[in-house]
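User: Before I run my own analysis I want an independent prediction to cross-check against. Here's the chain; please return only the structure tokens and, at the end, one sentence I can use as a sanity check.
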Amino acid sequence: MRAFLVLLIFLLAACSQDPDVGRIDYNMGMKLIKGIGAPKNEVEGIRHLTLASEAGNGEAMVTLGYFYLQGTGVLKDEVKAFTLFERAAKQGNRDGQYNAGLSYIRGIGTNVDLEEAFRWFRKAALQDDVGSQYNIGVMYMNGEGVTKDLLLAYAWFAEADSKQYEGAKDAMDTVRRSLDETQLTELDRTMTKVSRSIVRQPSIDLSVGTGEGDQPL
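Assistant: Structure tokens:
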């Protein structure tokens, strides 16, 4: 009987745990900010997003980061925005990784660091983030933050182009004109290797506009 009670207590405790940390506060925050199902209340919405972020919800971190970057509902604070993006990035959130990369390459809220920018873009690119795929193509093409590699540049531009990312097709054409015969024979193999390295994911909508979208370098 005692063993049964211990098991019952364990099961009840497990059921009471939120399987998606901060999700309730994140959803409530977005509803209040957008006025969905409740009167619009930006201040209260941001409070819920902050609670979700503090609980470890990556989507809340990225969304709050956008708000701090733009000064929407909060005082503009680029350092705070960067901190939130990088926290989300370290958790594996691809939108956080993309924005951490953008922050490092533009010196927004942190010092310019091309190697760090490339590192975060690559992590997001491997999670099938199209903006990051285009951006590391640029970095490989120009040798910025990484050793110049035209084959890899072309392969990543091709990935971005497959999703109809603006500018990717022109970038592919530019790189291809610079390849010699030996490189051209290696091109298909490189593209296949890059394609197989990507974890394909559905597009994620954070339900908040950044005002800028995925930004090419």
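Sanity check: Residues 1-19, 205-212 have pLDDT under 50 and may be disordered.
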